[in-house]
Amino acid sequence: EDQVTQSPEALRLQEGESSSLNCSYTVSGLRGLFWYRQDPGKGPEFLFTLYSAGEEKEKERLKATLTKKESFLHITAPKPEDSATYLCAVHSGNTGKLIFGQGTTLQVKP
Amino acid sequence: EAQVTQNPRYLITVTGKKLTVTCSQNMNHEYMSWYRQDPGLGLRQIYYSMNVEVTDKGDVPEGYKVSRKEKRNFPLILESPSPNQTSLYFCASKPQGSYEQYFGPGTRLTVT
Question: Which residue of chain A comes nearest to B34, CA vs CA?
Fold first, then answer.
């Protein structure tokens, strides 16, 4: 069964304290792994797409990496404006569906 | 500005009163989809459409209907809403051949 699990559920950091969010997945025929950012009361905003193990993408303080079983979203020297829920999703080649994890809610305190 | 729009953004209704949530995109995307988001359950797909007049069930289609008469619009219809359909709803779209979906701002629905 296709499944996506994110950990931790919640993460509180001090400004400047780097950390990583985890997304573990099992999927038949991975067509892509996606990271989204969601602010309260808003729709998910696309961040990254990763297609194959070993691939990495960067954007400002965020860096996403992918292995055959999991993806990490590394946050370097976070700022309060990075506070949001980060969603991971995989596109299943078997079902053609986008399967979401439950998200990690990040709070960065000044 | 390229975007997905939804209306209304907030809706409180009573059990059994039919309602429609509209979704429109201005990016000429072929694929459109509806999701609901519930605490602890994440985003779950309700229905999707690969193109005009082509729709299919997602993971949680019970109690919902959709139609795709025009490429830009994909309304979600609740014929007889029930309290278990209280949720946050998102419409999304993507171009053919891409896996990256773009989401609307959400509609918060409360059914009493």
Answer: A98
